[in-house]
Design goal:
The chain is of the alpha+beta class. It contains three helices and six strands; from the N terminus they run αααββββββ. The strands form two sheets. The chain has a three-stranded antiparallel β-sheet with strand order 1-4-5. A three-stranded mixed β-sheet has the order 2-6-3, with no helix packed on it. β4 and β5 form a beta hairpin. α2 packs antiparallel against α3 (109-128). The protein is rod-shaped.
Length: 187
């Protein structure tokens, strides 16, 4: 009987150990499953965070580009705000220059000084509005991007493709050319 009790007791112990082992395995499996679920939930949250961060960065970049573009447009608008009016006044400026040349030929110094004062005042007012002369001199290389050729005349060999005469001055406002200089070139 002792042997039987011992066997039973041993069997109970084995069963208990087996149950404990199985319980431990089940618990470990549950823990692993929970860890996996937690990891996937954590990974999902990290992915969502990455996506939101990416959206934020893209939106911020778009806003910065918009801000820079509008600031540039404002600056260009201020630089060329009076462009239409200045364009219309350029023939008057040309007339003043022609009048000064004619008065100088006549030799009337008093008239010349009076018209010159008005011309300088007018020109300075236009300069304050952003008007700039485009410098072109006789002998400069002709550039179709910055000059407007109105005639070609035969000339000396060293004047081929060069400016022989400036018929009308050119002007710019800011970085924009509002009237190209009209020139005669050598051929």
């Amino acid at each position: 009987m002792k042997k039987e009790n011992k066997k039973k007791s041993h069997k109970k112990e084995d069963n208990k150990q087996h149950k404990d082992k199985k319980h431990t395995q089940d618990q470990t499996h549950q823990d692993e499953t929970m860890n996996e679920n937690e990891k996937t939930e954590q990974e999902q949250l990290q992915d969502e965070l990455k996506q939101e961060k990416d959206k934020y960065l893209r939106l911020y970049a778009e806003f910065e580009n918009y801000r820079k573009r509008t600031a540039k447009e404002k600056l260009e608008l201020f630089e060329t705000a009076g462009e239409k009016l200045v364009k219309e006044l350029l023939p008057v400026l040309d007339d003043f220059e022609r009048a000064l040349a004619e008065i100088k030929k006549e030799g009337n110094e008093a008239h010349y000084k009076g018209v010159e004062l008005i011309y300088e005042k007018f020109k300075n007012t236009l300069k304050k509005s952003g008007l700039k002369d485009i410098e072109v001199n006789k002998g400069d290389q002709f550039d179709p991007e910055t000059h407007e050729a109105i005639a070609q005349v035969p000339g000396e060999e060293n004047m081929k493709g060069k400016v022989i005469d400036v018929v009308e001055k050119g002007y710019a406002m800011g970085k924009k050319t509002i009237r190209y200089p009209k020139v005669v070139t050598g051929s």
